[in-house]
Write a structure and sequence with these properties.
Pfam families: Hexapep_GlmU, NTP_transferase. It comes from Paenibacillus wenxiniae. The chain is an alpha/beta fold. The chain folds into two domains: about 5-260, Spore Coat Polysaccharide Biosynthesis Protein SpsA, Chain A; about 280-360, Hexapeptide repeat proteins (UDP N-Acetylglucosamine Acyltransferase, domain 1, 3 Solenoid). It is built from nine helices and 28 strands. The strands form seven sheets. Strands 5-4-1-6-11-8-12 form a seven-stranded mixed β-sheet. A five-stranded parallel β-sheet has the order 14-17-20-23-26, with no helix packed on it. A five-stranded parallel β-sheet has the order 15-18-21-24-27, with no helix packed on it. It is elongated, with a radius of gyration of 22 Å.
Length: about 375
Amino acid sequence: MKGFVGVINLDHELDQLKELTYFRCGAAVPFAGRYRLIDFALSNMMYGEVGDIALFVRRKYRSLMDHLGEGRPWDMDRKRGGLFILPPDWHDPTDTSLGDLQHIHNNMDFFYRSSGDVVVHTGTQHVNKIDYKDVYAYHLERGADITVVYKKVDELRPEHGACRRVEVDADGFVTDIHQDRTHNNIYVETFIMSKELYLEQVNYCIAHGKSYFFRDVIQSNPNGLKIAGYEYTGYNAVINSVESYYSNSMDLLCPDNYQQLFRENPVQTKIKYEAPAKYLEGAKVSNSLVANGCVLGGEVENSILFRGVKVEKGARVVNSIILQKCTIEAGAVLENVILDKDVQISHNRTLIGDNKHPYVTAKSTSL
């Protein structure tokens, strides 16, 4: 098998999670009690044996750099290859590229020096467990120039509205890519193609004043490329709004959903060593994900608590997501709430949101 070159492209991922993306990009948003959204894309690449990964970033990536470090949890801290965090070069006087093509143009050396021959391109707004080896085998079997990955969903949800749709024929080849909201084949922002063809198409787009690789090469397909569609049948959550973040997080409290995402190939993340969660006398905790370092004295129900959360005696947390190091003082009541990290909720304070539109606080605030 030829080697893979990974591209995680954050350029098109806008900061759509309101308070949760005030101080970080979407890829760095915490998820499922101990992870960040980018962990799932990186873990998929690790299990797919992707040797070199380019992470295209443009804004608010300090938190992301702190989380990733040298890439050790994903086996990317290597002497040769590994993880490269690549912002665009704003000072290249020869640069005429636009959109996400600017990242590729400014970082051509990464592709020339990488040892892999096949590009795996993805983002972080789709949380899934795609097997890139299976996708590549399908790609070879179909003799395709490009293979895009899609998920056929049984129930269309609000977050699917912004997703592109993929239509395929009986032989598995793509006949159309569009945004008809009634169509169930959701493009999961992942495709595979040879590095040689990838760079060839990048140069073609720049020479013709194009801006975005997927739209101008794959969706428009001006050069008549042979595009196959691979149907991914596993777990897939789309995180592109506060509402979708909340609903998909709450879905993980269902054991079947949790097992689908975490049963095989454990998701890797930055390790933080803390004591196990401590349950004080009188604490009541039910149907919740509780991370290490938490100290719980009150009532927690149907909620997700990240590392180091403190819930004092007499406090009540229901249907809520509480990020790292938050403190909920005695007598406080939280329902349908998302607290970003380091938030302090004062004595007897009540915050209640709607189960479709949760109440959200930015990090390091006191209420």
